[in-house]
C-alpha cells in the first residue's frame, strides 16, 4: 500500500526553532543543508527568503499544498488537546501556553504552504523517504532530522534507525538528529545507545550535544554523526 496523507499528523516548526534545536551557528547557515522528513516546517521557506540553500525531503510532498493544509486543519485541534493533556511534560517558557504553541505552529505551516508550490518547482522540496534517498554521495554538508528518528521509536525499529542514519551519512558529511526522546513519554529512546554503538563501530564520529532549545522536558540534546 502507498503512503497515505491520512496517516500523517503534520506539525511544522520555524527557522528559529531549527536554529535552536540543531545548534546552528551563523556560518553553518551557509552550508548545503538537507532537511530530512521536513514536513510542513517553514525552515526551508525562511532560509530561502534569506538567501540560503536548503532542500527538504518528505513523502508528504507528493500531495498538493491544499491537501496538506487540509490535513493540518483536520489534525490541529487533536494535537493541541494532546499537548494540554500532557501539559507537565513540556517547558512553558519561550512558548508560554498551548494556545501560543498553536499560533506558532500555524504561522510556520502557513509559511510552508505559501512557499511549497514554487519550492517544489525549484527542487527545494523533494518527494523522498528514509531509509532510501535519491540524493548523491556527499551532496550536502549537513543533514537535519527533526522529531522523527528516536521520536517514533515505538513504531520504527532499531534496524530502521541504523539504516536511515547510514543513508543520511551517505548524502551528507554530518547528520544531526533532534530530539533523543520518545514522543510524549519523555524517555530517552531505547535505540539511542545501540545506534551510537553501531555507528561508532562503522567508523563514524558520534557525539551527543546539549542545545539551548528545550520544549519537551529533557529534550535539549541532539545526536551528531560525522562521516570522516
Output the CATH topology.
Rossmann fold
Number of domains: 1
Q: What is the N-to-C succession of helices and strands?
A: HEHEHHEEHEHEE
CATH homology superfamily name: Vaccinia Virus protein VP39
| The CATH C-level class name | Alpha Beta
Strand content: 15-25%
Indicate the percent of residues in helices: 25-40%
User: CA-to-CA gap between the ends?
Assistant: 38 Å
Q: State the CATH architecture.
A: 3-Layer(aba) Sandwich
Number of helices: 6
List keywords for this structure.
228 residues, alpha/beta, Rossmann fold, 36% helix, transferase, methyltransferase activity, methyltransferase
Question: Describe it for me?
Answer:
- By secondary structure, this protein is an alpha/beta fold.
- It has one domain: Rossmann fold (3-Layer(aba) Sandwich).
- Helices cover 36% and strands 16% of the residues.
- It has a seven-stranded mixed sheet with strand order 3-2-1-4-5-7-6.
- Helix 2 (43-49) links the parallel strand 1 and strand 2 (54-57).
- Helix 2 packs across helix 4, helix 3 (65-85) packs antiparallel against helix 4 and helix 5 crosses helix 6 (192-201).
- The radius of gyration is 17 Å and the shape is globular.
- The termini are far apart.
- The model has no long low-confidence stretch (mean pLDDT 95).
- This is SAM-dependent methyltransferase.
- One of its GO terms (molecular function) is methyltransferase activity.
Amino acid at each position: 500500500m502507498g503512503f497515505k496523507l491520512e496517516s500523517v499528523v503534520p506539525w511544522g516548526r520555524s527557522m528559529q526553532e531549527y536554529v535552536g534545536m540543531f545548534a546552528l551557528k551563523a556560518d553553518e547557515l551557509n552550508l548545503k543543508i538537507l532537511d530530512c522528513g521536513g514536513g510542513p516546517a517553514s525552515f526551508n521557506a525562511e532560509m530561502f527568503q534569506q538567501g540560503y540553500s536548503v532542500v527538504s525531503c518528505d513523502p508528504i510532498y507528493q500531495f498538493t499544498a491544499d491537501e496538506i493544509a487540509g490535513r493540518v486543519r483536520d489534525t490541529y485541534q487533536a494535537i493541541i488537546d494532546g499537548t494540554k493533556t500532557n501539559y507537565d511534560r513540556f517547558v512553558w517558557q519561550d512558548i508560554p501556553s498551548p494556545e501560543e504553541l498553536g499560533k506558532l505552529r500555524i504561522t510556520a505551516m502557513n509559511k510552508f504552504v505559501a512557499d511549497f508550490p514554487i519550492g517544489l518547482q525549484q527542487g527545494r522540496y523533494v518527494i523522498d523517504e528514509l531509509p532510501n534517498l535519491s540524493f548523491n554521495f556527499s551532496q550536502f554538508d549537513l543533514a537535519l532530522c527533526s522529531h522523527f528518528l528516536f521520536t517514533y521509536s515505538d513504531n520504527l525499529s532499531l534496524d530502521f534507525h541504523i539504516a536511515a542514519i547510514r543513508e543520511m551519512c551517505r548524502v551528507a558529511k554530518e547528520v544531526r538528529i533532534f530530539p533523543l526522546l520518545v514522543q510524549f513519554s519523555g524517555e530517552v529512546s531505547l535505540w539511542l545507545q545501540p545506534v551510537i554503538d553501531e555507528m561508532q563501530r562503522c567508523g563514524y564520529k558520534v557525539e551527543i550535544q546539549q542545545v539551548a532549545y528545550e520544549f519537551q522536558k529533557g529534550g535539549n540534546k541532539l545526536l551528531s554523526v560525522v562521516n570522516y
